[in-house]
Design goal:
450 residues, alpha/beta, Four Helix Bundle (Hemerythrin (Met), subunit A), 434 Repressor (Amino-terminal Domain), eight-stranded mixed sheet, 9% strand, flat, disordered C terminus
């Protein structure tokens, strides 16, 4: 995500490496590289110029007051602050007032509207304890109703649909009445998209909005389309005056233009960002955290929040006891792998850790990285999984034959597991380092911002 932009900004900061202070000359050189990086990320030139002019003014105004801070670090701080401001300043929550709350989803075909509708329903159900209803109002795309039905079944959320009805206004109004009758408190209306903006499409979405009077209208944008996405967002906003933007496909080859330009151009906040197909890969958009990711500084707060979503307090307490007794076994290890898988794409998770984005940029990392380990463990007997000490040469050879990997790979895994087990046991005896203790007690958690 934003790899190219991050690399080019990093090169701009390197201009200041070795400098003792910020001067008009080295600031100008760094600013020129920053502007090139933004334009290369498909940010409108006018926005890029205004952005870099603000940075230049602030950099020149520092007058080296912070003498203990290196020029490169000071420039990163200034750029970070300007990026946060450009992307909206602070996170903005979705409006959930109303009984039921009606949320209208709009956007072009292929932007990820239907998938986002499912992710939003899952987010509101799991994080906000709401009872959502998905509404299939895309009456043109043949597979749209089926896709929403599959998603609804996957996340255990009801879907209102009328396959024979081609009037989206009628469908939406009936869905709201259905939600009221069945005590469902959020109605998410998935509307039709087109391959491009046309008057018929705009007229239809305007009629739906006028009829249902939603508390929240969200415009879904494919972030991989860069400046085109910004232009489309402006056209929709001019017609239906939506409340917020959703950026999808952030796990793709995202240059960053949409994320950096939409708030400035349209004047509406980015409320959610989405990546991948998994239903739990939806995040509230925090400009400060996104700025940190763009500048290669990670996003440890979001990482902790994602971990907390998968956190099981009773499981952590049980695990802590086993580690202290040095009884951590292969079944426990499988459980931990399962928790990590639920958090989403591995490379994306690693990039949230400060300093890891540069280390992983050329590595091919995906969730299949655990497949070999799981195959080895699944080839063990229940007794072997519970008692790692039982491993001998004949057992290892049988496991190797069963999992399709050679004896060297099995030995390597068992050695690494043993080292990890010893280290966890050792750390559990250190004061204040009980495995999972802070999480299990509820102390030391990062407070979520709504």
């Amino acid at each position: 995500m934003f790899d190219s932009l991050s690399e080019r900004l990093d090169s701009a900061f390197k201009v200041l490496k070795g400098e003792n202070k910020l001067t008009e000359l080295n600031i100008a050189e760094s600013i020129k590289e920053i502007r090139r990086a933004l334009v290369g990320a498909d940010v409108n030139y006018k926005i890029a110029k205004e952005f870099t002019d603000n940075i230049k003014d602030k950099a020149l105004g520092q007058d080296n007051v912070l003498r203990s801070v290196k020029p490169g670090q000071l420039m990163i701080k200034i750029v970070n602050d300007e990026l946060v401001e450009l992307m909206g300043g602070s996170a903005e929550d979705i409006n959930l007032k109303g009984k039921p709350t009606v949320v209208l989803i709009a956007g072009l075909q292929g932007s990820g509207k239907t998938t986002f509708s499912g992710k939003l329903a899952y987010h509101l159900k799991s994080e906000r304890k709401k009872s959502p209803l998905l509404v299939a109002c895309d009456v043109y795309r043949p597979a749209a109703i089926d896709q929403l039905s599959v998603i609804g079944e996957q996340i255990n959320v009801p879907v209102y649909k009328e396959p024979e009805n081609k009037n989206p206004v009628q469908i939406a109004l009936k869905a709201i009445a259905h939600a009221q009758a069945h005590n469902l408190d959020v109605v998410i209306v998935d509307t039709a998209g087109r391959l491009s903006i046309d008057e018929e499409m705009m007229e239809e979405i305007a009629k739906v909005k006028e009829a249902i009077q939603p508390q929240e209208t969200l415009f879904v944008v494919d972030s991989m389309t860069g400046q085109d996405a910004v232009n489309t967002a402006k056209a929709f906003n001019d017609r239906i005056n939506y409340d917020g933007v959703v950026l999808t496909k952030l796990d793709g080859d995202t240059r960053g233009g949409a994320a950096l330009s939409i708030k400035y151009t349209v004047g509406k906040p980015i409320k959610f960002v989405s990546m991948g197909e998994q239903m739990n890969t939806l995040d509230v958009f925090h400009p400060d955290r996104m700025a940190s990711r763009i500048l290669g500084m990670g996003d440890i707060v979001s990482f902790v929040e994602m971990a907390e979503r998968q956190f099981d307090e009773e499981q952590a307490k049980r695990l802590e006891k086993k580690i202290k007794k040095n009884k951590f076994d292969f079944n426990d290890f499988l459980e931990q792998i399962g928790q990590i898988r639920k958090m989403g794409d591995l490379k994306h998770l690693m990039n949230m850790i400060p300093g890891m984005s540069k280390m992983t940029k050329n590595l091919d990392i995906d969730n299949s990285a655990f497949n070999k380990v799981e195959a080895i463990i699944f080839s063990m007997t229940p007794q072997e999984r519970e008692n790692p000490e039982l491993m001998n040469m004949s057992r290892k050879q049988r496991i190797a034959n069963g999992c399709g990997h050679n004896i060297h790979e099995v030995n390597m895994f068992l050695k690494q597991f043993d080292q990890m087990r010893r280290m966890m046991h050792k750390m559990s005896k250190m004061p204040g380092m009980g495995a999972g203790a802070p999480a299990a007690s509820g102390k030391g958690r990062v407070k979520r911002r709504r």
